[in-house]
Structures are given as C-alpha cells and as structure tokens.
Amino acid sequence: MRKLFQCLFLLSAVVLAGSMWSCSDDDDQPGTNGEDSTLGVEAPASDAVFATSATFKLSTKGAESYVYKAVEGANAAEPDPVVVYAEAQESGTIVAVTGDTDEALVAGLEGNKTYTVFFIFKVGDEYKIYSQEINTPEYSQLVTIIKTDMSSMTLHVEVPDDVYYSLGFIDKEKYEAYKIQYGRTDIDYVVSSPYGGMKDPRYKGPQNITIANGVNAYTGAFNEKDYNDDVYPYEVHPGTGYVIFVAQCNEDGSSEGFVNYIDNGGGDDDDPILGSKLPNVKEYTEEKPVSENMEFTGFCAKTVLVTQEPNQGSGNVMIHVDRVTEKTAVVTLTPTDDVYRYVVNVSTSEEAETLIPLLGGEETWQAYILSSGRVFDGAQQLSIELSPGVSYRLSVVALYNEESTVQTFHEEDGIKAIVSDKPAVEFKVTPLALENPYQIGFNIKAPNADCAGFKYIINYTKEWYPVFKQLEESGMEGTKVEEKIATMMSSFGQPVNDPEILGKINSSEGCDLYFTSMDDIESWLILESYNSDEKTKLFYDGSDYRVKSAPLKPEEPVNSELFSKLQGTWNATITKPGEGNKPLTMPVTIAAGPEKIASLPEDVKTHLVTYYMDKKHYTKEAAEKLVLDYFAQYQERTAYYTQKYKNMNCLVGTGFSYSPVYAPFASPWDLFQSTSYSSYDTDEMFRDYGPKLFFQIGKDEEGKDKVTVISTMIDPTTGYYSRYIDPMSDWQYTLNLYAYDANLATSFYMADFPVELSDDMNTMTIKPVEQDGITYTPSIAIQYSQGGTLSWGYQVDGTGIVLTRAAENAAPANATRGISTAVIPEVAPNSGSHFRRTRSPFGYVPMEPVELEISSGSLTKKNLKK
C-alpha cells in the first residue's frame, strides 16, 4: 500500500505540471536541443546486441537523468514519459547523468525478437524521448538468463521440441557446503533422484521459466500435478548467489541413457559459452559433469548467478569502537532515524576472505550477513570476544523497510585484541569458618586495588578430578591441571563485574562471597582475575581455595517405639488422578540405614578385579588391593549414613519403583557392584541410590508421635538451604518428590508431607498438603537438566501414597542381589547434574553488554539445519 501511494503521488505531481514537458520526434542521430543540450541514442553495433541484452551509446549533455523502456515490436508507440519515470523511481532504476556521454545496458530482452527501445531524458522540467529499433539474435546456448531482480529470475532453455529436462536450483552457500561436507559434485545435481528425495521440476521443449520467491517450484512444470500443494516453495533473496542446473532426462524423470559409467573422471574441455552480458551471471558452462565413476552425456548446463542487489538507502549505522582489551572489544552502533532495524555479524577477517568467493563474490557478502547475523534496533552497545592475534570484521546491514528491499552496508574490519603492558591482578583469598552446614564462604581481596572484574567456578573438590578426566576423554585441549582449569573457566566461568562487589574486593577489608553447600563436604574455588585491559591470571592452588562445610548438628533425639516398629517390608500403592486409573502397588523396605554388607562376596570381588585388570590394565595384585580398599570405604560410609539418619531422627524407605524404565531400584550395594555406574567417590552411591524417601519421626504439640516425609528446604530470607535431603533417586534419572496440583501441571513445589499412621501400625498414608485452598498431592517428577526441566513421572491422586505392611515372610524390596541379577545402570560420571548442589552468590545478577558470537566461517552449520 505504501508503494502504491508513493507512485500515485508522483504521477499526480507530474501531471499537474503537464504543460511543462514536451516530447521530441524520434531521431536516430544525436540532436541539438538548445545551446547547452546535446542528446541522442546511437544504434548498437551487432556485437553489442545479445539474446537478452543490448548496449547503447548515449549523448547525454544537458540532461539531468534518463530512463529506458524496451517495447516488443517495430515502430512501437511512444510510452508516457511521466509513467515510465514514475515506474523507474519506484524500482530505483533512474540513471543520473554525470557526463556528456554514457553507455546503457538494456537487459531483460528475449532472443529472436524485435524491440523498440525508448530512452527518456529529463532536461529541466521537460522530457526528451529518443528510440532505436533492434533485432535480438536467436539463443546461442542451452540456458540464457533473461533477467533477475531481488526476488526472482527468468531464464530461457533452448532445446529441441521433444527433449525433456529437469531444473535444479540451490543457493551458492548450500552448494559449497554440500561439496565440503559430503563431497557432492555437479553430477549429483543432474542425475535423477537428487539428494533429499525430492524430484526436480521437469519441462519439455524450449521455453521461459521464472523462479520466484515463495512460488511453488513445480508451478508450470511438466510434473506440476505431482506437487501442486505449494510444499516446495522457492527461496530467492536480494544479492544472493544461486546455482542452476538444467539437465536432459526421460519423460519419467530418470537419467537412463544419459549416463556412462567409467573408471576415471573425464569431461569435455570446451570453453564456457557466454551468451548474455548480464553482470550478475558469474559462471556458465555446458561442460558434461563427471564423477569418479560416471559421466553425464545428455544436454546439460550449469549457471552461477547473483540476484539483483537491494536498493541503496540514504541512512547510516555509525560504528564506534569504544574499547579494546586482551579479551573483548566493546562497540557502539548508532543508527539514523530512518533505519527500520539492522543485522550484525562478526567473523574473523580470514574467514570472511575465505567465505566470500564461495558465496559468489563481494556482492553476496551483504546477503550472507543478513541471513546469518543478529537483529537489533536502536542504539546498542555490543561486546565481542577476541582471541590473541586474530583480526575480526564487524559487518552491519541496515534495513529501511519491512520487506528489506532498501538496505545499506557498513563494516569495521581489523579489530584486534591488544597486549596489555599492565601487571595481572593479584588475589588474596581466605576461607571463612562458618557454622551453617549448608553454607561456605571466602574473603577475596585485591591488595593492589586494581581488579576490574573476575570469573569463578566452585564445586565440590571430589568432583573436580573426574571432570578433568572427562576433558581428556572428550579431546579438549590441555594436559596439565592449569590448562584443564583454563578450559573449564573459558566454558563455564561465571563473570562478576558488579561495581559494589569490585569496590569491596579492591578495599582493605576485601569482599566476603558465600555459596550453598551440602553438609560436611569440601568445596574448591577457582578464580580468574581481570585487570583493566582484561589480562587474566588463574588462582586455584593451595589450601586457601578449599573449605569444608560444617557437619550437621544432631537433632534432639526422639524417644519413640516407631523407630523399631516401622522397620520392615511394606507395599506402597499409588493411583493417578482421574477415572479408570488402576492403583499401582510396589514393595518398599523401611530401615534404619543403607544396606549393610559384612564381608565382600567372592563373586563380587572376582567380577570387580577382572574389570580393573581388563578395562583399566591393573595388575592382579593392584586390582585386588583397590577393590578391598573400596569395600572398606563402603562399610565405613554405610555406618556413617546410618548414624546420620539416626541424628536426623529418620528412617529410610527404599523401593517406590513405579516404572522399571524411569524408576528402577538400585541400592548402594547394587551401585558398588556395577562397573558401568560412575561416581565421584563412595559417598555418591549413598546419595544417588533409590528411589528412596526419608520418614522423620517426631512429636506433635501434645507430645504424641508423628511421622513426616521430609524434603529439601530453602530459607526464603537468605536463599540458602535450611535443610538438604538427597534426591529420591539420582543414579539413572533424577527423581524428586513434589507437591503437585492435579488441576495445573505447572503448579508444584517441594514440601514436607504428613504421614497418617493407623492404630495397628499396619497402614501408613503419605497425605497431600494444602496451600491457599489448593490440595497438592505427593507426586514423583523426573528432572532432566540442571535448569529444572521436569517431566511428571507419576502424579498421585488425592488419596496420597498408601503403605500397608507386608506379610512377615515377604522378601524385602532391597534384598541383596548377586552379580547375575545386579542392576547394571548405564550412567556417565555426571549422572543427573552433580554441579547442581553448589550455587552462585544468591541474588547476584551480572550486568553485561550484549555479547556477539563470532561467525564460524563454516558454510554448513547454518544451512544444514534448515
């Protein structure tokens, strides 16, 4: 609508001044129109007329600008100059005069036709019209590009009337990507059944074919009826390189009869045939494509061309490099008011120089930026991560309308990291002694008061070395501890540039930073300091960077017969909400602690020793010693966790295996036997095992016994744990018990659940809880990632989880199993997400400029996902 309005406005403006323009008679020779005006059009020589274009020499003295219009036929009627100028203004094809002569390329003609070409010169308020009649020759090649614009192209195929052929069309970037990644050659595009399973559109006989953005590729094709649902639309964009293949085929689309199978590659040595003077045709050849084992012998042509570039806007996006350090460049982009939005891409200068020829030339670079960059509007400050000694190119495409047909292009090349002459920032780190078992802390101080920022990673000490081992196995660079730490810091380091924190670090008192923890466990802090030029230094070695959290303080012992009477074998029954859901029952064992093993069974010992000998290349003596040491640790930690549960006034219920796939049961002893389960240390198997729930025994306000299923709790006033309870299970899938709203799956939270105990102590019910009038049932969720993505493993209805005591002779749910029946869990060392248990300083949100990713320079990554 905007375009139509502008065009009509221009027409009306010029028509009102109709008395101010006049037309000259047609004149084949230059004429004189006033003392300072010499205008005319010279008939083109025969070698300047092609099938689709012709070049005219013009006399332009005295004119401000000119346009042309080609009309099919001899002695065609003169067009209305006002209308032609209005159309040219809309399409951006008005040519400004800069001298007394000029050459004009008239494109978009067709072969073997007669045209009258009109040139309209604007002289002051008048229009002068001159014309020439030309005859275009017959098409001299198999494929000739007639014309292109920003979103379409028209080509002519010249073959005998009875010849069938297919049309292959692909953008130049994909063409090069498939060549690099898959070794695809030109013969792959001309033999039938091309890659992707989609047959090319087929045609018969000589004809014009138009390829237009958004139009079904099979429209007008011989096999249009097979693909008439617009499921394969063309994509054609401004200033973009494309490759077109036209290849002879049979009526059914097969290539039978047009392929010779050979032992070695071959092909014609004919020079490329050029039958068009269009500047956007980059390559044309009718050379027969070959591969290592076949040669195509039918009619075949390959054309590489670039679509019309977008119209030039009048605005700008100003690029100002604010600051460059050893690590980053900060750049401010300020668009003028007429810029609709703009697209930004960052690549290395070397990658850009390599990529541009593959895309089809410099004129295609702008289109590549448009398709691969990030979109912004308004003024933006952007941060670019730099590598030492590498030159970067920041490219910006400014758009001036929603259709992206008017653009400008802006670049800043040669952005490089500096080498700082300032000293690196030194840190003094002091661990804090805290009584909270769920909190640890460090005091960090920069004695020279020169810290401009820092990064950190903190995790439990026992988990660091397996992570380093994983880095080795994944092929990441670095063999020394510091190299591995640097790799981790680069990938996972948390940046801190908050002025208040940095101010304290640069003060004489330093800054105290606190982190969450589990009880009685050592954490290892790793730091990377930054000076004002972002020169870095790592800090990690020594006792100052490690601190152990306080152990849990035993709760006041509860005197209750329930500690003994509730132990034993039970059956747990759960039912999903809704009608028709049958109850699901599973065995559960309630005990004082994890399973105790008095001595190492010989079959388990043999199994593990053989594993370490075969897989880890231990000697028999070393393998036996290792297995015995591990078993001693197992016994020690069994006693430790049994006492810990007692100090918490808890019994542990194991089982709750609602699904053999998502909730299989594995005791600590099962995990000890498994050679595919990986743990950071022996403690992990006593935290990961399950499914399990903790039943805490206490007293109500009247002094009567009460039972509660307890969960992890966070103090809302501090953001730190007020209680940490191990997950329901974490060896195969991370399972947790949540309070769940059956009416809204996204409504849940972690809660403690009351347990109702029958008078005969043979039935226990884990009851729902209520909050704000809503009933939340105790339901099991699967946590897939550290980010907290949940999948409801089992939603429980309003009755809750009902446990009934099993018969006295029933086998316990977690009975000791031998090697032949032991669980063989397929888990990696990072089962679940062990980093989940240590968190950043609560409430801190770093403020950063928008960070730009560096373009990979690969042709493949972006397009192969489309």
Furnish the topology, listing elements before pairings.
Elements: H1 2-16, E1 31-32, E2 38-42, E3 53-61, E4 65-72, H2 81-91, E5 95-96, E6 101-107, E7 114-123, E8 126-135, E9 143-148, E10 152-157, E11 164-171, H3 172-182, H4 187-190, E12 202-204, E13 207-212, E14 241-249, E15 259-261, E16 281-285, E17 294-296, E18 300-306, E19 311-312, E20 317-324, E21 328-335, E22 341-348, H5 349-359, H6 362-372, E23 374-376, E24 380-385, E25 392-399, E26 406-415, E27 428-431, E28 439-445, E29 453-460, H7 461-473, H8 481-492, E30 494-496, H9 499-505, E31 511-516, E32 522-530, E33 536-539, E34 546-548, H10 562-565, E35 568-574, E36 584-591, H11 602-614, H12 620-647, E37 650-654, H13 668-673, H14 682-688, E38 692-699, E39 705-709, E40 713-714, E41 721-723, E42 734-740, E43 748-749, E44 753-757, E45 763-766, E46 769-771, E47 774-783, E48 790-794, E49 801-805, E50 850-852, H15 860-863
Keywords: Signal
Signal peptide: 1-17
Can you describe what's shown?
The chain is α+β, with helices and mostly antiparallel strands and 866 residues long. It has 5 domains: 2-135, Immunoglobulin-like (Sandwich), CATH 2.60.40; 143-306, no CATH class; 311-415, Immunoglobulin-like; 428-548, Immunoglobulin-like, CATH 2.60.40; 562-826, no CATH class. The protein is built from 15 helices and 50 strands. An 8-stranded antiparallel barrel has the order 35-36-37-38-39-44-45-49. A 5-stranded antiparallel beta sheet has the order 12-11-14-18-16. Strands 19-26-25-22-23 form a 5-stranded mixed beta sheet. A hairpin with a 5-residue loop joins β1 (31-32) and β2 (38-42). α1 runs antiparallel to α2 (81-91) and α11 packs across α12 (620-647). Keywords: Signal. Residues 1-17 form the signal peptide.
